[in-house]
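FAQ

Q: What does a record look like?
A: Structure on top, sequence underneath. For example:
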């Protein structure tokens, strides 16, 4: 049985997470063919790598490491994972540049630290971003599938102000192109409708019914149906990432299973379509 690899696995391998990266690669090796949809690469760019680039840019333009930490801590709560992701990135790269105890590390942002260390931190972040992107696109025994015309998988590079930007200078898809992910799903409207039905609040536990991702996912799937019916002329770009786990469940080809660390959400969707989700 082949495996259709979701974003969580791509992120784990790209970040070389202990145990999970090696376990995932072993599972892929044993379950061929291994396919990575471009949608997973698109999510990696728009999510974790965008957050790392934001931390890099913030650190590069800050007068000190303390200022960089202060700016992140002052981000509004609404940014959620972005704030935590930037904070984690700064703490991790600081730890790589200095030999500190956990107590010292917590206090470090309040201590004067010289520019050479800050420059080393920005350099390490840039190297890490480019390394993760390279590893994500070169996971052994995998091939990319379901290309997205709106997404370019080029290189990360510095713009004229010294900020790291994603492929073609952006983290989001080409605004001039229609959503290719929605176009793929339009060809599988039966499965899309099945997921709209299974995600109806009356079919879910109260906890899942109130889960923000499920609410947004059902709304995005309904937009695909509206597009097919001619009730819309284009798919809202803001809803592309909301398709999320549903995209993998629908696009997973016959004879393959969805490989993910997010088993609970994927299992609900895959089971509804007569497919299987597996956690490595």
């Amino acid at each position: 049985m082949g495996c259709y690899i979701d974003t969580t696995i791509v992120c784990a391998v790209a970040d070389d997470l202990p145990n999970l990266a090696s376990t995932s690669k072993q599972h892929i090796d044993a379950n061929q063919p291994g396919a990575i949809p471009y949608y997973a690469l698109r999510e990696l760019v728009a999510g974790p790598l965008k957050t790392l680039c934001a931390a890099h840019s913030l650190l590069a333009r800050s007068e000190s490491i303390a200022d960089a930490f202060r700016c992140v801590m002052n981000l509004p709560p609404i940014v959620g994972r972005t704030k935590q992701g930037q904070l984690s990135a700064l703490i991790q790269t600081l730890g790589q540049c200095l030999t500190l105890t956990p107590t010292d590390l917590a206090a470090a942002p309040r201590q004067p630290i010289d520019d050479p260390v800050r420059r080393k931190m920005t350099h390490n972040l840039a190297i890490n971003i480019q390394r993760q992107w390279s590893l994500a696109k070169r996971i052994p025994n995998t091939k990319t599938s379901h290309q997205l015309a709106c997404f370019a998988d080029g290189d990360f590079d510095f713009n004229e102000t010294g900020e790291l930007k994603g492929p073609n200078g952006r983290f989001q898809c080409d605004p001039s192109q229609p959503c290719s992910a929605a176009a793929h799903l339009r060809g599988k409207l039966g499965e899309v409708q099945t997921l709209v039905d299974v995600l109806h609040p009356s079919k879910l536990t109260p906890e899942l019914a109130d889960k923000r991702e499920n609410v947004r996912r059902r709304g995005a799937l309904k937009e695909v149906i509206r597009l097919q019916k001619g009730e819309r002329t284009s798919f809202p770009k803001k809803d592309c990432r909301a398709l999320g786990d549903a995209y993998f469940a629908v696009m997973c080809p016959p004879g393959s299973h969805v490989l993910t660390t997010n088993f609970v959400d994927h299992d609900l969707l895959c089971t509804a379509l007569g497919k299987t989700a597996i956690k490595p």
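Q: Is there anything notable about this one?
A: Strands lie at 2-5, 34-37, 142-145, 157-158, 164-165, 256-259, 277-278.
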